[in-house]
Amino acid sequence: MSILDSINTAEERAAGLRQEAKAKARETLHRTEEQAKASREARLAEAKQAAEARLEAEAQAADQAMAEALSAMDEKNEAFVASARQKKAAAIDFILERVEVQ
């Protein structure tokens, strides 16, 4: 084999190795992009799930606060009505006294 043949063979091998390296690089890039996409989608799904859980917890807390506020208002209303009923007879007597005096 002559030196020229050896050089040509080495150049062909080098060209083949370059093509293999490019193909492997494309495969690696494609695989990395796929992994990044899957990771991004997984993180997005986790974030969405966490946000939904937090919204649900906040909604429950708001419902609880509303129920407590309504209960407190009901208690105040009942106390007011009971007080008014207790004072009703005295108010009627006061009004009748004023009407009789005139």
Rg calculated over all Cα atoms = 43 Å
Could you state the order of secondary-structure elements as H and E? H
Ends apart, CA distance between termini: 143 Å
- The general outline is rod-shaped
- Major sheet description: none
Portion in beta strands? under 5%
**Unreliable spans:** none
Helical proportion? over 70%
Please tally the helical runs, counting DSSP H or I stretches of 4 or more residues.
Answer: 1
Number of strands: 0
Mean pLDDT: 93
Structural class: mainly alpha
Explain how this protein is built.
This protein has one helix at 3-101. It contains 1 helix and no strands.
What can be said about this structure in brief?
The protein is an all-alpha fold. The protein is 97% helix and 0% strand.
Indicate the topology.
Elements: H1 3-101
Q: What tags apply to this protein structure?
A:
102 residues, mainly alpha, 0% strand, rod-shaped
